[in-house]
Amino acid sequence: MTRVLFVCVGNTGRSMMAERLFREKAGERHEARSAGVVPGIAPEPTVLEALRELGVDASDHVPKRLDDDAIVWAEVVVETCNVGCTVVSGKRYEQWNIEDPYGRPLEEVRAIRDQIANRVGALATELQSPNPGG
Prior knowledge:
Layout: E1 3-8, H1 14-26, E2 31-36, H2 45-52, H3 68-73, E3 76-79, E4 92-95, H4 106-128
Parallel strand pairs: 1-2, 1-3, 3-4
């Protein structure tokens, strides 16, 4: 089982979507959390709607602050944007540079959601391989 931490600025859009979609894809095989450098107050409504369209309910999401404990917990840290996480030796880091869904119309958020879904699907599949990341 691999522990994956998805990070963005506010933990109200990209990282939250990645966490929820990864959980759907990976099931019980891996764990996922998300956090933000400057967490917002609540998830973006259009992000919640875009996830609902796929049958994913994220209405219970509470944005969390990225801290040392979260990074220590993770084996894989995925920056969904360019936030500059603290680098800890022995962890795998990925930089996805996904566009921010904040304030965007649902049509654009769907495209962002689909991009994230493709990436988390590939990550979950890779982590299932006998030699992940190598």
